């Protein structure tokens, strides 16, 4: 049932005005409560699609896959719209690459003609570096703005700086001479809401007033964020990474990377983080950076007119987004390569690295945190790790894998319930309820009241002589100096034990609230909440190991390394390893995650513990399911995404998956030179197919090529307007030479230039594992199935996804197993030695039962051509 539901969900046409009007990447689509259906309007589904004849197209100067000719032999200029794509369609990677090669050849052939052509050639060559430079600059500037605004609005829930309203709590007290070491966060310039409203700084009344104002600001920020998203940019909600992965695989979602989405996501991301919800800004920063890359790509024709080239810019933009999110340029490049990119050539690697470099440089210049670092929780450790610590590190990896498996299942179950119940129809109410519960429970606990990034910073930080946190409330040796460079392991004080209990409560709170928060209709990232959960667990484990080593330093596992008075265990290191393990368990990232955390700490020494924890978390998580959270949300939303990480081991053939099947409408085909304009228009109007194979004739039935429905419609409409003598009875010719016609015949219409002369074909005996591999590596939308050169059916990307879902759910394939009979299809010629005829240009005549051979019976029971 899950596979059936997955492919029968719908983006209903009436919900989106832009599908039938001139659409652009900046259009707003109301996506609240709407689900996608890939049976109704997409190029992936060439048999079940439904493309309106009057649809407008945004891209112009599109080209055909045949680069040696113009789009119409009888026209001097290309037809606007031919070779472009509608909303919620998948691009043809092969055709886009052919268009780019033809453009490159054309520019190279003209660059020696004049200085102007040489300048255009240089501009084209450098346009890729220019667009990633602009993307990096914009991403770094917006990230700095978001960081500064989020910190100020987070502190606004607790009070305000009277001397300078634009200062947050920390900045307000920088210039004060009245702060003390123990109470460094208190200064006369900073006033809490209780002091401003009731004039009390301490006491029950002050606590209650601050509690009420905390909840008030949290609800206000959350309500404003969800209202802006719902009214102005529905695509600004969520993390954005599942949709970015789908877009980079070739799917088109108009408006998802537009200017309105960029503006609203930037504003609402600040509000969502400031509201105190269990979410982060790191994931949405990837979406923000990709919006910048998409907008700047329209300034360069090389990218604005080619969807495949545009996705190279988006890959570089995603690297820049992670670079500014974590201050990890190299980790951003690896994240783009490992996690989000579908097509990643070598030049994209260089440009991604450059974009990440530029973005990190801009953010460092802004210095949003005032610590000369790119992130708030940058730490450095000076104590080495010891071999016996690998055991607790691996235990943290096991915890991260279990947390990831639990979170994915729980969050997907809740999101599925949200889609299938009335609760999902009230996104504003859901956000308000979640924000209210979060604020009410978070305020009493100081560790949940903190901004999540500040919490991670405190958990990562090692206890030094200048630390006043409860986590550093150890009992000091009275005979030793209190200010030393290397503080030895000490017994925990009451403050540490109290902090451990508060951290345990914070861990439970974060686990529960993150499940219900990720997926609500506000910008919500998952990196920071997952890292916070792992950091809390890691810090608790680190303190436990530290105390164990202190009180039992004579045990054989501690005896060699942990001498009395030595600094043996670093609890902050355990917090860092736990954060990496939990994030790896949720996302199933490996190499990029280790590099990101390594860049956070600035030390090569801790790569081995990180690798051990991350790989353990991935193995444990994969034992419960190989999908990460982003792949799970892609499958939940029904996006047409073929994951290259999945393995296909089922023994089926192309004939088992192709369409048409039994009781399906027959496969519609065109002939190359004996159909009229009216015949083609009638076929387009009477069918909903998005493409038609072209055969030589009714008698030979050999494949000539493949014509898309949209290209046929646009070419015929353009020919009627621009060419004289084209009428309904005009013969349409897909052949190279026009057949001889009677003198009184109307002028023929030559459409060979819009014909794909080399469609991908497989035989009916091709194993499906090879077909799936071809679709993944070449980015195909459709593949024709032939038998001895005769077209039998078609396999689309949607058919591949349906089949993979059936295999995953252990559903038997619709066709008999591959070993059921030797010959799968009737021979091309009948028992009388003559070719089997077709009628209405679409199908073979039914075979009389008296003519059936023993080899054909099984096929005819399962499918009809």
Automatic annotation (TrEMBL):
The chain crosses the membrane at residues 126-150, 214-236, 256-277, 284-301, 313-337, 386-408, 428-447, 499-520, 532-553, 573-598. The keyword Lipid biosynthesis does not apply. PANTHER family: CHLORIDE CHANNEL PROTEIN, H(+)_CL(-) EXCHANGE TRANSPORTER 3. It is found in: Cell membrane; Early endosome membrane; Late endosome membrane; Lysosome membrane. Residues 658-722, 755-814 form the CBS domain. This is Chloride channel protein. One of its GO terms (molecular function) is voltage-gated chloride channel activity. SMART domains: CBS. It is a multi-pass membrane protein. It comes from Nyctereutes procyonoides (Raccoon dog). One of its GO terms (cellular component) is late endosome membrane. It comes from the Eukaryota. CDD domains: CBS_pair_voltage-gated_CLC_euk_bac, ClC_3_like.
């Amino acid at each position: 049932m899950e596979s059936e539901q997955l492919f029968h969900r719908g983006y209903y046409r009436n919900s989106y005005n832009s599908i039938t009007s001139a659409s652009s990447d900046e259009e707003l689509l109301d996506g609240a409560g709407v689900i996608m259906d890939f049976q109704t309007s997409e190029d992936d589904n060439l048999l079940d699609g439904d493309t309106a004849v009057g649809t407008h197209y945004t891209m112009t100067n599109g080209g055909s896959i045949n680069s040696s000719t113009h789009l119409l032999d009888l026209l001097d200029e290309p037809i606007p719209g031919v070779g472009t794509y509608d909303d919620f369609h998948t691009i043809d990677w092969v055709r886009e690459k052919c268009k780019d090669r033809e453009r490159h050849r054309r520019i190279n052939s003209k660059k020696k003609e004049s200085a102007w052509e040489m300048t255009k050639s240089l501009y084209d060559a450098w346009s890729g570096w220019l667009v990633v430079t602009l993307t990096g600059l914009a991403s770094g500037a917006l990230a700095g703005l978001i960081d500064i605004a989020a910190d100020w609005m987070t502190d606004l829930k607790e009070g305000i700086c009277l001397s300078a309203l634009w200062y947050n709590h920390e900045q307000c007290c920088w210039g004060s001479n009245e702060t003390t070491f123990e109470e460094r966060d208190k200064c006369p310039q900073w006033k809490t809401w209780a002091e401003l409203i009731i004039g009390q700084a301490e006491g029950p009344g002050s606590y209650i007033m601050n509690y009420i104002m905390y909840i008030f600001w949290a609800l206000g920020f959350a309500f404003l964020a969800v209202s802006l998203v719902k009214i102005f940019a529905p695509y600004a909600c969520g993390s954005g990474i599942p949709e970015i992965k789908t877009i980079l695989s070739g799917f088109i979602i108009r408006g998802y990377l537009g200017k309105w989405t960029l503006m609203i996501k930037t504003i609402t991301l600040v509000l969502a983080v400031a509201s105190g919800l269990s979410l982060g800004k790191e994931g949405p920063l990837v979406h923000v950076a990709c919006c910048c890359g998409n907008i700047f790509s329209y300034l360069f024709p090389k990218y604005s007119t080619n969807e495949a080239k545009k996705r190279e810019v988006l890959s570089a933009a995603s690297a820049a987004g992670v670079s500014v999110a974590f201050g990890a340029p190299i980790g951003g490049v690896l994240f783009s390569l490992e996690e989000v990119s579908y097509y990643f050539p070598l030049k994209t690697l260089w440009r991604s690295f450059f974009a990440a470099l530029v973005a990190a440089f801009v953010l460092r210049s802004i210095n949003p945190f005032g610590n000369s670092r790119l992130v708030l929780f940058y730490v450095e450790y000076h104590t080495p790790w010891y071999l016996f610590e690998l055991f607790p590190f691996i235990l943290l990896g096991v915890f991260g894998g279990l947390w990831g498996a639990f979170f994915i299942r729980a969050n997907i179950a809740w999101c599925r319930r949200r889609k299938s119940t009335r609760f999902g129809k009230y996104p504003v109410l859901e956000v308000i309820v979640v924000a209210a519960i979060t604020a009410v429970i978070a305020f009493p606990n100081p560790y949940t009241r903190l901004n999540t990034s500040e919490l991670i910073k405190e958990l990562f930080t090692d206890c030094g002589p200048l630390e006043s946190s409860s986590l550093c409330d150890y009992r000091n040796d009275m005979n030793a100096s209190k200010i030393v460079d290397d503080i030895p392991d000490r017994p925990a004080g009451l403050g540490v034990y109290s902090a451990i209990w508060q951290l345990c409560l914070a861990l439970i709170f974060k686990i529960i609230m993150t499940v219900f928060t990720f997926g609500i209709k506000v910008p919500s990232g998952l990196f920071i909440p997952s890292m916070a959960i792992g950091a809390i667990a890691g810090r608790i484990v680190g303190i436990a190991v530290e105390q164990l080593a202190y009180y039992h330093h004579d045990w054989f596992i501690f005896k060699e390394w942990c001498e009395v008075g030595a600094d043996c265990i670093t609890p902050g290191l355990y917090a860092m390893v736990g954060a990496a393990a939990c994030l790896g368990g949720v996302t199933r990232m490996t190499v990029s995650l280790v590099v990101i955390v390594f860049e956070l700490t600035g030390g090569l020494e801790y790569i081995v513990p990180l690798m051990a924890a991350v790989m353990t978390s991935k193995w444990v998580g994969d034992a419960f399911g190989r999908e990460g959270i982003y792949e799970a949300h892609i499958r939940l939303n029904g996006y047409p995404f073929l994951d290259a990480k999945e393995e296909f081991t089922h023994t089926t053939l192309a004939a088992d998956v192709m369409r048409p099947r039994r009781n399906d409408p027959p496969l519609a085909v065109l002939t190359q030179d004996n159909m009229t304009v009216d015949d083609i228009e009638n076929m387009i109007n009477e069918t909903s197919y998005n493409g038609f194979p072209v055969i030589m004739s009714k008698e030979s039935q050999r494949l000539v090529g493949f014509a898309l429905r949209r290209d046929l419609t646009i070419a015929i409409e353009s020919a009627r307007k621009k060419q004289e003598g084209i009428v309904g009875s005009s013969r349409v010719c897909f052949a190279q030479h026009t057949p001889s016609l009677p003198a009184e015949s109307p002028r023929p219409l030559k459409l060979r230039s819009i014909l794909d002369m080399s469609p991908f074909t497989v035989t009916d005996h091709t194993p499906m594992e090879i077909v799936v591999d071809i679709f993944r590596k070449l980015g195909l939308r459709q593949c024709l199935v032939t038998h001895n050169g005769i077209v039998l059916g078609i396999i689309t990307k949607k058919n591949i996804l349906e089949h993979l879902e059936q295999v995953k759910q252990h559903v038997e394939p619709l066709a008999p197993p591959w070993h059921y009979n030797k010959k799968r299809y009737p021979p091309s010629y009948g028992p009388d030695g003559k070719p089997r005829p077709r009628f209405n240009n679409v199908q073979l005549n039914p075979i009389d039962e008296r003519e059936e051979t023993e080899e054909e019976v099984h096929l005819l029971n399962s499918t009809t051509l």
